[in-house]
Amino acid sequence: MDSNGQTMDDLTHDAFLCGKLHLWQPRRGYRAATDPVLLAAACPATAGQSVLDLGCGVGAAALCLGARVPGLRLSGLEVQEPYAALARRNGVENGISFEVHQGNLLDMPRALRVDFDHVIANPPYYPAHGTRSPDIGRATALQIADTPLADWVQAATRRLAPLGWLTLICGADGLPEVLAAMGQKMGSTAVLPLTPREGRPALRILLRARKTGRGAFRLLAPFVIHQGPAHDGDRESYTPRAGEILRNGASLSEEFR
Fold it and tell me: Quick one: pLDDT at residue 234?
């Protein structure tokens, strides 16, 4: 049993990026899947820069980014201490320096009240009035309760240095709120729709925006995740490009050009 009362039976040890990364996660509750991997792939950070992961969970996005780009100064904020503890453990066991703080983005720990080159975020995306998960950790991680998307965007904006980049993944229906919350402080915005299959509506979006950026808004061509019209048996069906991202840890820089 660890200091948060979790036993080994409560956790799973899961491979990401074809085994380049192994992450401890709760067996029940919120579990990282493709979203944090896509978020990491979309962040344009380079060696020596600082990155803050808001709502970092067990550290999947930050550590996937750190696995692709060595030499980053990675920090994380997580409201639930058991997840924060796992994020710290995952950083240590994967040999990636990752400073994780427990706290709320509306009252951020003093150590994080500095300027970052990049802020990444995977905010909760289910509305508060929806059916709440019986697992408290999963419910807190997935549902928009007391912290709407606008608060995530504004917290990220405050933590960015001038010309710093926000990279965010959220439900497609949250895009209007995100754009409204950015106001005049963020610009050079690019939105990449994520569609599960060719011809399907985009259910999620990836967004990049730059603090004090002045570039024009761009809506990019959709990124298709799976091949074929429908799921075909118990096998992986990623498109070749999605496989490069989700399995091999490639960057999404081509899609954001």
Answer: 62
The answer to whether the Cα torsion of 11, 13, 16, 20 is positive or negative is positive
User: Residue 257 falls within a domain, yes or no?
Assistant: no
176 Cβ neighbours under 8 A, 6+ residues apart: none
Tell me how far apart the 2 most distant CA atoms of the chain are, in Å: 52
Instruction: Give me the domain span that covers residue 149.
Output: 9-225
CB-CB contact of 198 with 224 (8 Å): yes
Instruction: Answer whether residue 2 is part of any domain.
Output: no
Q: Within a domain: residue 245?
A: no
pLDDT at residue 134, as a whole number: 44
Structural domain total, the chain: 1
Listed in sequence order, the DSSP H helices in 69-207 are 81-93, 136-142, 149-159, 175-182
Domain harbouring 14, CATH code: 3.40.50.150
Q: Across the 257 residues of the chain, what is the mean pLDDT of every consecutive 10-residue run?
A: 59 97 94 96 98 98 98 97 97 98 96 98 70 45 66 98 98 97 97 97 98 97 92 78 97 97
The string of DSSP letters for 22-59 reads EEEEESSS----HHHHHHHHH----TT-EEEEET-TTS
Q: Is residue 123 included in any domain, yes or no?
A: yes
Residues 6+ apart with CB under 8 A from 178: 149, 150, 153, 168, 170, 207
